[in-house]
């Protein structure tokens, strides 16, 4: 397994492999790997000749008051896990090489980036789409893998790939959860024990919502109200949003119908957790 930090080095490696007719699967990440990341790596390993992952804590997707400085990092551990998953190359660039000063070019997917998480994290998705497009141009993958845990991110990246005619296939894999239902996230490491216990309510609330839809509830307001009540029953949870939106537009629906995303963001202390469920009604 190679670790490549230089942008030219990564691009040259990929060009050589593509010239030989080999396929490259790519999993972009910020590191501090958990089972969710590993499931993406395993799938990409199965489906491609070569497997590249990037580890880059991307500064442009963090707001000024967010956790860029304390985002969990452990490159040694990530490297061992990557090797076990059969990664061929870890692309591990430096921020000053990814964004050489004066950096001026950004990519933004309109409308989809301003709602849900984009509303409480202005500029976040502009940072994500910019870095993902840069990584695609550097790694030159055939297929890139993302998790449904970041559903809005996955929808926005799919839209960017479609709108910009990028010759890359995007695959999105299911959310990995702890046995108790808590969605895996690198940020779970911030949670204190009582917060971690209370955060289980998020998956429970989503399951209740899915159950209500399956049993014929048509008014999203009633479902959202029930979810909010469940989450508020936990002392430490502070709701950022709970919404039921159309999967294509990410706009709240007035009636339960079609392919829907039930999604939420809730703070436990300073830690903001997101989770979701997809349902066809
Ligand atoms: O989902 C993530 O870890 C990040 O948003 C990504 C896609 C690696 C871009 O920095």
CATH fold-level topology of the largest domain: Rossmann fold
Widest beta sheet: strand line-up: 1-4-3-2-5-6
Largest sheet: 6 strands, parallel
Query: What is the ordering of alpha helices and beta strands?
Result: EHEHEHEHHHEHEHHHEEE
Helix-residue proportion: 25-40%
- Determine Rg (CA atoms, Å): 19 Å
Give a written overview of the molecule.
Helix 6 (124-139) packs across helix 7. The chain has ten helices and nine strands. The radius of gyration is 19 Å and the shape is globular. The chain folds into two domains: 2-173, 3-Layer(aba) Sandwich (Rossmann fold), CATH 3.40.50.620; 186-275, Pantoate-beta-alanine ligase, C-terminal domain (Pantoate--beta-alanine Ligase, Chain: A,domain 2, 2-Layer Sandwich), CATH 3.30.1300.10. With 281 residues, it is an alpha/beta fold. Strands 1-4-3-2-5-6 form a six-stranded parallel beta sheet, sandwiched between helices. A three-stranded antiparallel beta sheet has the order 7-8-9. Pantoate (PAF) binds next to strand 2 and helix 6.
Give the key terms.
Rossmann fold; 10 helices; alpha/beta; Pantoate--beta-alanine Ligase, Chain: A,domain 2; 2 domains; 9 strands; 6-stranded parallel beta sheet
């Amino acid at each position: 397994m190679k670790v490549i930090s230089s942008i030219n080095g990564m691009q040259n490696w990929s060009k050589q492999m593509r010239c030989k007719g080999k396929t490259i699967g790519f999993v972009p990440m910020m590191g501090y790997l958990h089972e969710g990341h590993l499931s993406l790596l395993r799938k990409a390993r199965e489906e491609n000749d070569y497997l590249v992952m990037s580890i880059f804590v991307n500064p442009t997707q963090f707001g000024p008051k967010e956790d860029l400085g304390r985002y969990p990092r452990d490159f040694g551990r990530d490297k061992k896990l990557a090797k076990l998953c059969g990664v061929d190359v870890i692309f591990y660039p430096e921020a000053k090489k990814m964004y050489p000063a004066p950096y001026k070019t950004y990519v933004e997917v309109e409308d989809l980036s301003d709602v849900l998480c984009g509303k409480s994290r202005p500029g976040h998705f502009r940072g994500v789409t910019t870095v993902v497009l840069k990584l695609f141009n550097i790694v030159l993958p055939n297929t890139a893998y993302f998790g449904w845990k970041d559903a809005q991110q996955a929808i926005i990246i799919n839209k960017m790939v479609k709108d910009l005619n990028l010759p890359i296939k995007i695959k999105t894999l299911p959310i990995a959860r702890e046995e108790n239902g808590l969605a895996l996230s690198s940020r779970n490491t911030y949670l204190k024990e009582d917060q971690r216990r209370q955060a289980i309510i998020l998956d429970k609330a989503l399951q209740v919502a899915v159950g209500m839809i399956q049993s014929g509830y048509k008014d999203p307001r009633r479902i959202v109200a029930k979810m909010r009540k469940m989450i508020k029953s936990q002392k430490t949870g502070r709701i950022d949003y709970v919404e039921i939106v159309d999967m294509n537009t990410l706009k709240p629906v007035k009636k339960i119908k079609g392919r829907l995303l039930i999604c939420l963001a809730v703070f436990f202390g300073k830690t903001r957790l997101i989770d979701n469920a997809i349902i066809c009604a």
